[in-house]
Amino acid sequence: MDQVMRVTFGDQTFVFDLEHSPISDMWIDRMRIRHRWPIDDPRRFYHFDPEHAERAKAERLIKQCIDTINQYQPVIDRPWTSVDDRDMLNYLHHIFEVYHGALDQQHHDFWTQAPANVHRALRDLNIAVHRCEYLSIGHPRVVCTWFGMPKDHQLALDLQARWGRLDYEFGGVYLNYVEIGKTALDLATDNDTYIADDMFKPFSHYSADFVITFYHQSQQDCSILLEKIDRYWQANRSFFRRFGIESSQDTRMMPLRFKVAQLHYEAGTESAILETLRNNQVITSIEIS
Question: Is the pTM of this model over 0.85?
Fold first, then answer.
């Protein structure tokens, strides 16, 4: 019998059919031990509410993180501007990178000495920045991550090239990007002047973390993203050559998605599903059987 994942949002349960692929199998292995860690934030729902509500939510979260961090130690010395200030968001992401550290480099004195609530605020700052950045995209999705779960498993490049795809499907479940850093697409989109060379992080590690997309994006739609990456690569060839990347078509440059499951639903019911989720914006349980 095929395996399924049941996710309950509020009091509404949705069934997802698991993919038949080595990547899905690897993800399921991680999912089987996820109970050892709590979900980071069961309310990471994006763009199910009107724009003004989404903007207010994003600003509230980021201000809470800044306040908690600065009450411990005032390392964020720029006054908050707005969710539309890309330079401000890049600056805050840089603060996260410096004081949190990469996955295997959490050695900064600030991190090692800070209390648990500040650790959480730093981690949430990263989430809050990405929530602000995502406001301009406007596609509904749900992100599920586990607080403290090790990100020590890697997805080999040959598997990425074989199973990676460019499209998103309504109700598709995909591996979540877990690196501390930015992809080529992030760099090309942000025009980030704060990021250090060692913070370019192509997709490599994975865990049980996943994202569910509730919209369609075809491979043709992604041609714009590929063009943006190519222009950035053309302008920064020497930078990427330090990583052995000689083409914008290198797997490490591509905005690949790795699908692990698909929502089981009837065509034509997308609007009803979105409305149900809008009224149930919390993950209450996840089961695989």
Answer: yes
